[in-house]
Write a sequence for this structure.
């Protein structure tokens, strides 16, 4: 990395504190594996970001490399999102996702219109999402939306003509969370960002959760299919007979990836390299814990170098006794969400040309 | 318009999509009819904006011409509201109006303090609006307030000394909505911005709603009185015996304008050039639909060139089948609200001198 | 003050309106008593601001002198908080405190992420403050937090590594309110910012409220102990047997300050120079008025030059008939909170070097 760049002032705060062995992979390795290809990212200009399957392997890899650059340097002085307004329309409230997008926009010197809760909006008057979409065409350059209803993106896109970034739609998808998940994994093992090479060891991946009904889990699993060559097997640990649903099952089969469903966590856990966990789902109008029997803590029979991902918020299914162990990749995952969302916003809003030269 | 200006980047998103014949009048004609007279607009510096009747015909015309300029060009690089803070104090929540003001401030490079809902404020502690007004004197340069109580502006103005812009006060007024309404009409027929000339055809104007109890309708009707010379007659279609109330009736009589009240929508509709519709009113603490029998859809017996205005949000009284027809002026009306609010903020905050030369 | 500075544009709005004799001390005297000592303020860089007792007399005096500078000049053009993000995390909602911090950040050209209410956050999902703290490490440079629970700062600080400013924690403290209180007093009597000199007249200070259970009162009283040399006696007027609680009692005793508790307001009031009043406390999950028998109005037997402080919001315990009298120092106190919070943010965020030369 060129000495011309000021280091990102956030960096010291992301280092695990003294006494913690949490895994914090440096972004440097991913960035230097090969610099971001802006031609690939330019394909995203003006695009909606609705679900994992719209991305190619290369787009995900380049977004993550750009995120690695943005995590290392102080980008704000370049004001790349100058004059751009992003609306964070959170008809379903959230602290984590909304504030992470707002942080991403601020660090890029963009501007924010914030709708933090659906109950305090015209939606209370019964206004349609279609009409809200037409309105947003004049108000902002991009809408980041979270909604309790799965068809909300479809409805707002009937009239919305500026890019929409889906921050979670009912039991649909949460594609930017999947990007954050894979950004953490690509920093952890930069070789995953390149095609599989004979001799690489494939990953045993586990999922504690229900892809069919939990949007973050679904998006993660579907994005993981882009990396199928690097994956030995996906083991879904669930008590449900069909944790996938028809749509995900079809994608799994098309991807030619080996997978299994088991309810035996003790038998499966010791084999896994990556465990993705999420037990909280927003169903209907409240939060429910599924598969609550499956908890992880420092006593769980984890492989020595296994890492855990969790989109957070968590209740007690992911015990805090794991926070200081090297299994903790989930804090890095949470931190990194800001940078990969910055990369995505720059690409979607067509502002890659405002970036400085990388070298 | 001088080539020195960058076109407003929002413009492509405001064009009706392919297949739609919605009426989108270009701002160019209004702006070029005669450029904005900044001396007239300077009269508004430091003024509160509380109700329609405070404006002169000329102030409305010049505000709309300035809005037409702001709609065409990218104004952000001039940072006209540099260093200015606007508080959007929405004790009565709103998506549309609050976000439209916030977009207006952002595009002018001003700053925003956002109070999106009255239930999450000190008001819950029973704090008086008078005390809130005294507080705002130190916090910001301008307050945009919406409140469920009609006397809220009067109460906050006991101590507030920075300009107040009324974004809706109970069953009082909504003057900036009326400005948005007339901005749409003046773009549609720029001759309305000049004195009536013999040979012009006067407009048949219709109102579906209750001016006496719906603040947006009231403000629109009262602002229309400034254009009385251009209006043949105002027909209010309502089931109520007295849809005006004493105050509006007096203004109507003083304005020497012909008006009538009828409940026969089928007989009146085919004669009207402009139909202003609003059937949702905030009464007490909830939304009520009045005159719900009167609905418009693509089958309604509308004059060929008739245009419809509606402040939105709408329920089902204005059918979406009209959206793609030339009768749809309400989408342009919604878009234009941002630009006329920009013009108003520049005038009230005394920043007209930051504008570039128009030619 | 050098002529190089533009006067703060807010100044005219802070002057009491015609007909009001409210006390508005000019910041000039405090600033010119001796200019702010930035070396002392540099001690605060990167520090959490949790309670009154963490400050030294000198730090409070210098913060208030810097506030006096910021109140007089227009600081925004120097952009001292360029690129810095402050999160206002108000899990307990507030209009006054949140908007005053946001105004402070805006005037310094910083950026804001706003969480205006705890009910619209991941906290609803049961997410822990510890996890929220870890998240904030990547999102912002500083967190200003208000919470209903007294141990909330302790919990978030388990993982939060950027500075935390406590804006009120249950029945704990409200240190920045105490700074605002003392800023008002130091402008009123600049000699209080210097060591006591023989011949100065000591103050008779009164408190109408319950320091043990009202955080603003507690913080004010504890910060007042730094000025013990200037105080003749503290009289707490309360109906409670022990209005202090063990912790405050110990601090009072250590400070070697004379104090008494009485329930006789009529006997005590005429002797007091400063009356600090607060009768609203947030207890549990609602607001309660304590000691509601004790009200002040224009007929109260106040000493001629006595001044009243009240953190506001108020109900009817502090009558509006006092607003136009010289006893009213509470409006100045409310205004000044913005400037002393600006001073604090500059110090905590290590941006004192962005200030212009004072002379």
């Amino acid at each position: 990395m060129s000495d011309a760049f000021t280091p990102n002032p956030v960096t010291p705060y992301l280092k695990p504190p003294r006494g913690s062995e949490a895994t914090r992979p440096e972004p440097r390795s991913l960035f230097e594996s090969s610099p971001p290809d802006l031609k690939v990212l330019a394909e995203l200009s003006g695009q909606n970001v609705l679900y994992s399957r719209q991305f190619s392997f290369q787009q995900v890899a380049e977004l993550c490399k750009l995120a690695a650059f943005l995590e290392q340097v102080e980008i704000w002085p370049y004001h790349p999102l100058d004059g751009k307004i992003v609306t964070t329309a959170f008809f379903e409230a959230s602290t984590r996702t909304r504030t992470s997008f707002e942080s991403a926009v601020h660090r890029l010197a963009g501007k924010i219109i914030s709708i933090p809760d659906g109950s305090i909006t015209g939606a209370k008057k019964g206004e349609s999402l279609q009409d809200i979409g037409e309105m947003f065409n004049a108000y902002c350059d991009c809408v980041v939306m979270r909604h309790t209803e799965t068809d909300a993106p479809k409805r707002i896109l009937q009239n919305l003509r500026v890019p929409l970034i889906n921050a979670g739609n009912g039991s649909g998808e949460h594609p930017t969370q999947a990007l954050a998940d894979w950004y953490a994994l690509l920093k952890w093992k930069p070789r995953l960002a390149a095609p599989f090479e004979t001799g690489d060891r494939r990953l045993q991946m586990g999922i504690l959760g229900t892809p069919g009904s939990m949007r973050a889990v679904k998006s993660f699993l579907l994005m993981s299919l882009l990396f199928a060559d690097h994956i030995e097997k996906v083991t879904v640990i669930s008590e449900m007979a069909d944790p996938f649903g028809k749509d995900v099952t079809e994608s799994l089969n098309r991807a030619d990836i080996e997978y299994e469903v088991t309810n035996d966590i003790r038998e499966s856990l010791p084999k896994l390299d990556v465990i993705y966990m999420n037990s909280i789902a927003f169903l209907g109008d409240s939060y429910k814990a599924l598969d609550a029997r499956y908890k992880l803590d420092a006593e769980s029979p984890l492989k020595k170098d296994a890492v855990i991902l969790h989109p957070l918020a968590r209740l007690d299914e992911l015990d805090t006794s794991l926070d200081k162990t090297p299994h903790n990749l989930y804090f890095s995952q949470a931190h990194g969400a800001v940078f990969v969302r910055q990369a995505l916003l720059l690409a979607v809003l067509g502002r890659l040309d405002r970036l400085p030269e990388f070298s």
